[in-house]
Amino acid sequence: MRNPNDFPGSLERRARMLIRGARLYTGKDFWQAWAQGTAYLLGRLSGRAVPLAVCWATTYRCQCRCPHCYAAARQRENAGELSTAEAKILIDRIGELGVINLNFTGGDPLLREDILDLVAHANKRGLITRITTNGYLLTRERVAAMRRAGLNQCGISIDDADPDTHDRLRGLPGLFERAVRGFGLLHEFGIESRFMTYASRRNLPDGLERTMSLARRLRVDTVHINIPYAAGLWADSFDETLSASEMGHLRKFLGYMKSPLVLIEFPTPEARCIMIKRSYLYINASGEVTPCPVVPYVMGNVRDEPLALIWKRHAGLLRLDYHGDCPMNSPAGREALRAHAAAVSSGELRCGAGRGNAKEN
After folding, report:
1. Do residues 322 and 329 make contact, with C-beta atoms less than 8 angstroms apart?
2. Alpha-carbon distance 333 to 13, whole Å?
3. Using CB atoms within 10 A of its CB, is residue 19 exposed (0-12), middle (13-18) or buried (19+)?
4. Which of 101, 199, 236, 314 is paired with 354 by a 20 to 30 Å CA distance?
5. Secondary structure of residue 21 in the 3-state scheme
6. CB–CB of 326/229 below 8 Å?
7. CA distances in angstroms from 130 to 110, 115, 286, 340, listed in the order given
8. So what's the pLDDT on residue 358?
9. 3-state SS assignment for residue 308
10. Does pLDDT of 26 surpass 80?
11. What are the Cα distances from residue 1, in Å, to 35, 179, 187, 253, 257?
12. pLDDT of 10-22, one tens digit each?
């Protein structure tokens, strides 16, 4: 491992992220994308709370049975998904907020028959689009169609560099091989690749370092390292979360590889999550809005009222200030999130607007 003192500084890190963002926009050959980016910047410069990204779980259907799933997919497979028409209206409303990035996730979003139609709709709306998948369905034909739809980035989850361990953790034999092949197809068709993994007491430090070596060999564009959350199927597993010393060791991976860019949640003890910085929002498969994917507390539903109203109440009432870890990883933080969601859903700061069905707004 490189000496921690050799890691790139924050200015270099930010410069590399700006270059990456510019590269994503160079693939956009229509004015809507640049208009969307300009709207976001103007909104932020004017002092308005504008989310940088929205994560939408398009479905809870999934081929895997991961013990660490924060979406708790096994318990919610029958949730009523938004229809194609509802989904396109939602994408339009997300764009109207000034959002730049839309992440289609799940479950496995590739199990939705209309997913590429939705990606194409978001692409035409000017949004940078990403699909996060387990990689099982990434065939040559599918990746080519993703490219034609205008997809900017695809994230594939890899839990371990050992194929048997990865498949066992995911509960799906042969998945590792398909996921690795998927990275090659993304590279072939010019779709930016994101290597999604997580740090845990099981894999720190050696297992995670082997996983990083795999990411280098696969020539991925970015690596995103999640931390364990006491959420989803681990909702009562506070013992799975990382200690302060374990978080310190994980932070040494920041800048570990010059290429690709490594992104770590809470890269410093002072870091706040993007949800608390009013830069993120999550929408689940049935249209419920929560602060982020690991927070189960519902603030409203896009089938009942416009997304902009839910966001305005959420941003206006948000007073949480946690550093260095996810609020879900402490009982006090969890209760504060629960209270916040209850206040938002009660209708405060409704600004005189009535409730309306998403199909009509």
Report:
1. no
2. 29
3. exposed
4. 101
5. helix
6. yes
7. 12, 11, 20, 29
8. 35
9. helix
10. no
11. 43, 26, 27, 9, 10
12. 455 455 555 555 6
Using alpha carbons, select from 125, 177, 182 the residue that is nearest to residue 150: 125
Q: Please write the tens of the pLDDT for every residue from 192-205.
A: 999 999 998 888 88
Those residues with Cβ within 8 angstroms of residue 243's Cβ, 6 or more apart along the chain or in another chain: none
Q: Please state, as a whole number, how many other Cβ atoms lie within 10 Å of the Cβ of residue 314.
A: 25
Is 63 exposed, middle or buried (CB count within 10 Å of its CB: 0-12, 13-18, 19+)? middle
Q: 102 is written with which tokens?
A: 């839309």
Residue 171 vs residues 65, 68, 214: alpha-carbon distances, Å: 5, 11, 21
Q: Are 166 and 160 in contact (CB under 8 A)?
A: yes
pLDDT reading at 235 higher than 90:
no
Specify the residue for token string 């989310």.
51
Are residues 286 and 59 in contact, defined by beta-carbon separation less than 8 angstroms?
Answer: no
Cβ(177)–Cβ(198) below 8 Å: no
Q: Supply the pTM of this predicted model.
A: 0.87
